[in-house]
Amino acid sequence: MKVLVVGSGGREHALAWKLAQSDALAELHAAPGNPGIAALAHCHPIRMNDVEGLLGLCREHELDLVVIGPEAPLVAGVADHLRRAGVTVFGPGAAAARIEGSKSFAKEIMEAAGVPTAAELAAVRAPCVVKADGLAAGKGVFVCRTQAEADAAWEQARALGDSVVVEELLEGEEVSLFALTDGVDTIPLAPAQDFKRLLDGDEGPNTGGMGSYSPTPFLRPDEIDELVETVHRPVLAELAARGTPFIGLLYAGLMLTGDGPRVLEFNCRFGDPETQAILPRLEGDFLGALAGAAGGALGGVELSAGPEAAVSVVLAAAGYPDAPQAGVQIRGIEDAEAGGALVFHAGTAVRDGRLVSAGGRVLNVIGLGGSVAEAREHAYAAVERIDFPGAQFRRDVALRAVRVPG
Ligand SMILES: Nc1ncnc2c1ncn2[C@@H]1O[C@H](COP(=O)(O)OP(=O)(O)O)[C@@H](O)[C@H]1O
Ligand SMILES: [Mg+2]
User: Fold this and answer.
1) 254 Cβ partners below 8 Å, 6+ apart?
2) Rounded mean pLDDT of 146-175?
3) Range of 162's domain?
């Protein structure tokens, strides 16, 4: 098969890396890709929202499958355009991608499907969580413990758009649970946890994610199937019943509360950075699963998680998230890889033959091991081998998981 991966982040590097292991892969392309992906795929300077450019690639290279990584092109309807032109696409059309693109639509679907989620509040009364309705790159949600915070959050959320969701503030462990789907059949992937705040101890500003690990001790294997049964399947059935089946990866962000799991949100694509910890563990025919989902034939595909754990630590540029410093030279990736780690590029570029920072989150460094504790040690040992002046990273990725008994 000839496959195109759309996107340029660490998630897309992980997708490309996993796809490149498939015997059935004939050619791998990326648009636009990044310097890490370029070692695995032909990268084309086409933006991820450029439908005509992507269609041109599909025709020129006779591509069999397009895998769209990020949410923005999905919510914008890029998958619809490609499908209408006869291309096989992994990723939902705009109507189903609204499950991520609109928080109020997600609430409406959950209510119709009977899926447990945070209760909506009629007034902006702390404690509460205030959410701008549309895509906000992680900057539209405000967790408010005081009334002053809630009032300020309301103003800020309103400034992002007219529609705002206010819901109860839930407490518990947060986990991410992904399911691949062709609209009817589903395959759950291993659960993961991510680390959204910039600093250790969940302090500092929200980011795109500073690390992740899988598996998580906070969900037992039998709970995974039960969650997919009570969360993913009813939502997929509801979307299909509305004539807008979801094809691709449905990501449930869950809070494991004392009263049971509650959905915080859905995403319409692989999570970044969870994917970087999930895919290195994945066993089975990944390309077959993506092609099966895209082609309406997921039934019969088997995927499982291997026995190893994975911990992924993000190296972010100095100044991230406000003003990440670009152009800082990075060395030592080969040393980290020689020690057994995986390094996925996110915000890098090659300038004058040197690898430099070119974004906020720059690298994902993944350690593998027989336990989360061992994977964690391997990840941080690899981080030490990378020379990236000013890099910011969390030192407590997966630390709580290591301390969970049993
Ligand atoms: N009802 C809630 N109770 C407690 N925390 C929440 C709630 N909703 C969201 N959060 C926190 O805010 C983060 C971002 O919210 P989320 O709905 O995932 O929006 P987005 O990812 O679009 O920014 C979550 O990962 C979670 O930590
Ligand atoms: Mg989220």
Assistant:
1) 174, 175, 176, 177, 227, 231, 261, 262, 263, 264
2) 93
3) 122-167
- Ligand 1 center from residue 135 Cα (angstroms): 13
* Confidence grade of residue 405 (pLDDT, cut at 50, 70, 90): low
Q: Note whether 204 and 191 are same-domain residues.
A: yes
Could you identify the atom of ligand 1 that is nearest to the CA of residue 262?
Answer: 1
186 and 282 assigned to the same domain: yes
Closest ligand to C-alpha of residue 207 is 1
Residues with CB under 6 A from ligand 1: 118, 129, 131, 138, 140-141, 143, 167-170, 174, 196, 253, 264-265
Could you tell me the distance, in angstroms and rounded to a whole number, from the CA of residue 23 to the centre of ligand 2?
Answer: 34
CATH number, domain of 159, equals 3.30.1490.20
Query: How many domains is the chain built from?
Result: 4
Q: Are residues 291 and 344 in the same domain?
A: no
Residue 60: give its domain's CATH number: 3.40.50.20
What does pLDDT average to over the chain?
A: 96
Task: Tell me the HSE value of 172 on the side-chain side, using a 13 A CA sphere.
Answer: 20
Q: How far apart are CA 367 and CA 171, in angstroms?
A: 29
Judge whether residue 406 has pLDDT over 80.
no
Q: What digits encode the pLDDT tens for the residues 350-400?
A: 999 999 999 999 999 999 999 999 999 999 999 999 999 999 999 999 999
SS3 of residue 226 by DSSP = helix
Cite the DSSP H helix spans in 194-253: 221-227, 233-241
Give residue 148's pLDDT band: very low, low, confident or very high (50, 70, 90): very high
Confidence check: pLDDT of 117 > 80: yes
Residue 101 belongs to a domain: no
